[in-house]
Design a protein that fits this description.
- This protein has 10 helices and 10 strands.
- The protein is α+β, with helices and mostly antiparallel strands.
- It folds into 2 domains: 159 residues, Ribosomal Protein S5, domain 2 (2-Layer Sandwich), CATH 3.30.230.10; 127 residues, GHMP kinase, C-terminal domain (Alpha-Beta Plaits), CATH 3.30.70.
- Strand 8 and strand 9 form a beta hairpin.
- The two termini are 16 Å apart.
Length: 301
């Protein structure tokens, strides 16, 4: 059995820059990994079955880790791997990252499942092919497989590394589940946001707080879910009281998690405590640090 960590992500900015004829949205976003994480435990089975262990709030048929394992096994079949029929596993998820929060928890679990099964099943699948499998599961999965802070473009498949000096964050999740599809379907969504040049992104990455850009999905999420709007306002108010720029406060992904950058861990703890006195019951607040690389890299080398 192996246990593979599955860290959450933040979108330090997220601009919807267009839409393809097939309906997929074109994005430009800076992703980073943070130390709020799930764990995916994988055990081999010789009977070829792929099963999920434990109790979860969502059905196994909708679980991205199950779909990831099935997709990797289908790749093995297509490549003529001799033991493909007997490849099986048991999957158990130790869940900590909130679902429906824009933190990429499900996508991260799927990516960690792919990484772990590549090792457990001893498959010679390349990083490129693994990323292609991941993209079939969701637009965020290739980033988690990429495993470090990166600018994502296209529908999320074009990635280039961009280390950012922004290291400390207060992350707050309101007691509401925000469905991604509902946000992207909204007719009021701005689909013509600016795409930044490499020079603009590089300059912003050297600052201790990320202030460039915004989240195109934030106005829609705030209108559909007042809890997100309220939490953003509370974070901005507490940031201003501490002398922090309110422009560092924004939503991650399609929401409803909101976050703000801090200069150091002490400042993050102070902000977290101040926000905890104002936020509604059920809000999850956590001090998070950016991860330089996916923790599974060292584990699975």
């Amino acid at each position: 059995m192996i246990s593979v960590p599955a860290p959450a992500k933040l979108n330090l900015f997220l601009h919807v820059t267009g839409r393809r004829p097939d309906g997929y949205h074109l994005l430009q976003s800076l992703f980073c990994l943070i130390d709020w994480q799930d764990s995916v435990a994988l055990s081999p089975r010789a009977d070829g079955e792929i099963v999920r262990r434990g109790r979860h709030a969502w059905p196994a048929a909708e679980d991205l880790t199950i779909r990831a394992a099935q997709a990797l096994k289908a790749w093995a079949y297509a490549q003529g791997v001799p033991n493909a029929p007997s490849l099986g596993c048991s999957i158990e998820i130790d869940k900590h990252v909130p679902a429906g929060a824009g933190l990429g928890g499900g996508s991260s679990d799927a990516a960690s499942c792919l990484l772990g099964l590549r090792s457990l099943w001893r498959l010679g699948v390349s990083d490129k092919d693994l990323s292609a499998i991941g993209l079939q599961l969701g637009a965020d999965v290739p980033f988690f497989l990429f495993g470090e802070a990166a600018v994502a473009e296209g529908i999320g498949q074009h990635l280039r590394p961009l280390p950012s000096q922004a290291a400390w964050f207060v992350v707050a999740v309101p007691p509401v589940h925000v469905p991604t599809a509902s946000i992207f379907r909204d007719p009021s969504l701005d689909r013509n946001a600016k795409a930044y040049s490499a020079a603009e992104l590089q300059a912003a990455s050297h600052q201790p707080l990320w202030l460039l850009g915004s989240n195109s999905l934030e106005p829609v999420a705030c209108r559909q879910f007042p809890e997100v709007r309220m939490l953003l306002t509370q974070m901005q108010q507490t940031a201003a009281a501490m002398g922090l720029p309110t422009t560092s406060v924004r939503m991650s992904g399609s929401g409803g998690a909101v976050f703000g950058g801090c200069e150091d861990a002490d400042q993050a703890r102070q902000w977290s405590e101040a926000l905890g006195q104002k936020a509604p019951t059920g809000t999850r607040i956590r001090v998070c640090q950016q991860l330089a690389q996916h923790p599974a890299r060292a584990l699975l080398q």
